[in-house]
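can u pls check wat happens w/ cytidine-5'-triphosphate
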Amino acid sequence: MILNGKRILLIIGGGIAAYKSLDLIRRLRERGASVRAVMTSAAQEFVTPLSVGALTADHVFSDLFDRQDEHDIGHIRLSREADLLVVAPATADLMAKLANGHANDLASTVLLATDKKVLLAPAMNPKMWSHPATRRNRATLEKDGTHFVGPKSGEMAESGEAGEGRMAEPLEIVSAIEALLDVGPRPLSGRKIIVTSGPTHEPIDPVRYIANRSSGKQGHAIAAALARLGADVRLVSGPVTIADPAGVNTVHVESAREMRDAVEQLLPADAAVFVAAVADWRTDNAAGEKIKKVAGEGPPALQMVENPDILAGVGHHKQRPYLVVGFAAETQDVLKNAQAKLAKKGADFIVANDVSHEGGVMGGDRNRVRIVSGGGVDEWPDLSKQEVAARLAALVAERLKTITV
Ligand code: CTP
């Protein structure tokens, strides 16, 4: 079992998502981990220590000053006798306490006393998550080296409000735990893999640019999933607002030409996955000065020229990686179009996005893809971008296994 012998200290915060922590305990234990739980007093309003204790098969800790308690082992021991601390759900309050070093209950004291990695799975109302105070606390915690999984967007259980704030699913938390504990098969160790992600910005003048709606979520998730399988991942990211993935070496670029240069400098590599939504065109001559309105002259005409095709360049490169994967936005004739693209771009696989997908692929959290190769089409179900990433990373590992270096 993958988590055999690993000790997780699970801190359950007070939120409706606390019920998912029960499932999380079950998932961790079936993978061989032992789980010890600390509950805040608010958490006990949502789930009972009795049910948590039944699942951990251990005493549930909640009181800081309960020296009468025969199970009391003290906060230092609690936090040190674990391989990893996981806070799920991590409420806005717990994040604020940890970001500011408060220690006025057992949960916050244990978090402050630990010398182990800490993983937070935030869950809160979207307004609370996007509040400047929570954003500040998150930035502080990230700077301190605290790890995060989620939150995701979706409907909130209590209010029906939509937005970012839903706790990650138990299995996603389990994957994040496995990654932090550095366990699991690492079939890609020793493999160098280039990934492109995000949009590109093509300048018009020093203050204006042409862009697209790509968020980088899918590409970054793929980079992280490849790294979890042990690959040395070099991510070339266009301008995005999401964080660099953990365990990945990230280079930031703006334009398609910068992205091409960065990718070519990273060759040779074992594989390359081109997820970026590269602008097909750029303005011919970006103005060196801000273009001004001139009375009577009307709007400027933008002269466009084609950008280099980065994927095609690498697909036909003399240092072509063993495995080259491209993405495509197809709505019709998927097989025909994608197969034509395979040859044109020199790719082994094309991951065809169904861009008619409900809710929109670009910027969204889910994706429905088809994997087109010389061998045919493999249709995947509607999945989260994390799941698409995990499956694609497994596919890359499978393909590279047959190639010995
Ligand atoms: N790509 C690239 N460099 C470009 C354009 C695209 O590397 N200048 C890569 C993308 O990262 C993606 C694939 O090529 O992997 C997408 O190819 P593209 O020809 O843009 O296909 P579609 O987006 O499907 O659009 P079209 O219908 O124009 O072919």
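The chain has two domains: 7-181, 192-400.
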